[in-house]
Amino acid sequence: MARCAPAGGVPRIRLRRPKREGCGEGRERVLHPHLYNAGHMKNLLICLFAFSAAAAAAQSSAAVPRAPEQLGTVSFSVSCSPAVQASFNRGVALLHDFWYAESQPQFERIAHEDPGCAMAHWGIAMSVFHQIWDRPDKNAMQTGWEEMQKAQSIGAKTQREQAYIAALGDFYRPGDADFMTRVTAYSAAMGRLYARYPGDVDTPGRSTRCRCWLPKLRTTRA
After folding, report:
1. pTM above 0.70, yes or no
2. How far apart are CA 22 and CA 170, in angstroms?
3. What tens digit of pLDDT does each residue of 19-35 get?
4. How far apart are CA 104 and CA 124, in angstroms?
């Protein structure tokens, strides 16, 4: 590369192409320095703009506070580790909101944190039983039964928890019974649970209409 200064006084850059064998001397190109600098400046501006846009997006995302969850308050004591009690209550509140996509991973995290928590597997099985709008398909029934087997294998520590697991376990148990037979038997079992633990389960009126037997919400939503 060589510089030359023509009569106008503005230096130009001569770029010499390498000589190719059999092609004679390499040819020269003259590149105006202003054009050379402008190309680099354009690339620099593009990079700066991209960096600024990314930084602004990150700052905007961090500045927007996450809205608090509008869940009712559940107080449903279980014999699991005290460290997961609050998480378990949140999982039951999510079941009340039919927020199954969130309740299932919530109970899965509890099962991971406390492997001895049989009721965590009850919660996972409840999360694949969409009581209002859906009937469990083959995959959901298989998942529910596997979770109930895990719960039974771990063993609930109280008669109350054993009753919850037994009621849902009978619903998922493999066999020829159709859905209505299963859900009717499940509703009857939960009715018996309500009679023994009236503070746990929602009122029979609501449960009879939708067969949604869930631990009771202690307070209304904020």
Report:
1. no
2. 88
3. 554 444 445 444 445 54
4. 5
Tokens standing for residue 168: 């849902």
Three-state DSSP string of the chain: CEEECCCCCCCEEEEECCCCCCCCCCCEEEECHHHHHHHHHHHHHHHHHHHHHHHHHHHHHHHCCCCCCCCCEECCCCCCCHHHHHHHHHHHHHHHCCCHHHHHHHHHHHHHHCCCCHHHHHHHHHHCCCCCCCCCCHHHHHHHHHHHHHHHHHCCCCHHHHHHHHHHHHHHCCCCCCHHHHHHHHHHHHHHHHHHCCCCECCHHHHHHHCCCCECEEECCC
| Domain boundaries defined on the chain | 2-60, 73-219
Residue 70, pLDDT score: 63
Q: Which residues of 69-91 are buried (b: 16+ CB within 10 A; e: fewer)?
A: eebeebebebebeeebbebbbbb
Q: At what angle do helices 118-127 and 138-154 cross, to 10 degrees?
A: 170
Note the CATH number of domain 73-219.
1.25.40
Task: Kindly compute the dihedral angle of the four CA atoms of residues 19, 23, 24, 25, in this order, to the nearest 10 degrees.
Answer: -40
Whole-number Å distance between alpha carbons of 26 and 29:
10
